């Protein structure tokens, strides 16, 4: 039992039952509160005041007009749009909003479903995709026995190896994407355009870049992506839809290589068999190391080739190198260095892992 | 709320239709609430715009909630505070809402305007004399009809603290209102 005789204005305001009655009276609650007013005549005025307060507060009108609201909603939707445009404009008045909301749900659901179905279609197989494409496609096939240079509409250049073929939409930039389908081997020199990322689809693997140079090589059992410059991300095509589960996406830096198995759709990261020098060594001496501590040697290699070298710096603290290297390939350099200091190395996940017992 | 839980889940899965539904359902609330902190309309709509776009960008990383409205209010509040901190002023203000009136005009308006308008203005006047924090809690409770739990979320204080603050605020409100009514009665009597 509540002690209404001690109720002050604030107690009525905070009484849930009272609030409910003030805003939305029902016969039962009406009876209850009227009876209470009779029982405690001195509360009548307070109850009246509390009710007025609640009504005033509850009915406060928004100063945002319906037009303003529509404009703002459209603005937000527009800036969060990624690949597809909403085909409707919003100019409904308030009476139409509930109808409109229903419509939006229906259209929205249809849109999501149709999008899902569209996404299913770019199947792993090149010919399957190209025949299923919804827009006019251009195809280039290299039937010669030499590499073929193809300029894409965006200014990117593709060097297509013999027997390779690529397809792309005649209207190249669509939905803020540049998309190319590849079968065979091709080297891509992609023109930088951060707002329209470049995608290469090949045998179930998606390679995504902004502007960079890289090689894609497809065979029946695997796809290899090798980065020459810039950053490249690769992802199995089957994982494109579920964005939450992007842990299969790999980021590649120059001289790193991804190998995608078309059988189990797994991607592994490795190093190019012939890494290129990305920059020149900073010091005059270049690769001529004269009594250099090993950390300086590794730092130089890492910088020039862009390949991470992992080693136990504490254990190898006393290792020093006195050897003059020049333009031997990366792995030859690595062989010489490791033999000189009595260490060994392996490649794992796109990195060089050096193991050593330490030096005395 | 079961409905919110489901909607939010769909939104986190990237459902655009649900995203739009959420914007439509809560935009007005956010705008009206934000207006109390930020009188600059454009700055406010920018703030709400950024709030929603950043939610969309992070949708797959967001946690689950069954309380969309308090969550949005809280996020907007934090955003505006950050915005305001640059100019080092944080005031719960309302410049042109008819409920909140300047002290100078109050007496003449009370007498000349019609009854309900008069009441509204009295209420607005009394509210105006409260601290920003007190005004805000009344707003959340009675204008936005949030529960104490939801207010606790928005203001980042405990539930008992909300109940405490609410009760103390309303008591203060009543005392001030009584004083005002008394003054007005005296004022009319003296004419």
From TrEMBL, chain A:
Residues 287-354 form the Protein FecR C-terminal domain. The chain crosses the membrane at residues 88-111. The keyword Transit peptide does not apply. Keywords: Membrane, Transmembrane, Transmembrane helix. This is FecR family protein. It comes from Dyadobacter flavalbus. Coiled coil: none annotated. Residues 144-232 form the FecR protein domain. GO terms for molecular function: sigma factor antagonist activity. Pfam families: FecR (PF04773), FecR_C (PF16344).
UniProtKB/TrEMBL annotation, chain B:
GO terms for molecular function: DNA binding; sigma factor activity. The keyword Transcription regulation applies. SUPFAM superfamilies: Sigma2 domain of RNA polymerase sigma factors (SSF88946), Sigma3 and sigma4 domains of RNA polymerase sigma factors (SSF88659). Keywords: Sigma factor, Transcription, Transcription regulation. One of its GO terms (biological process) is DNA-templated transcription initiation. Residues 122-170 form the RNA polymerase sigma factor 70 region 4 type domain. Belongs to the sigma-70 factor family. ECF subfamily. This is Sigma-70 family RNA polymerase sigma factor. The lineage of its organism: Bacteria, Pseudomonadati, Bacteroidota, Cytophagia, Cytophagales.
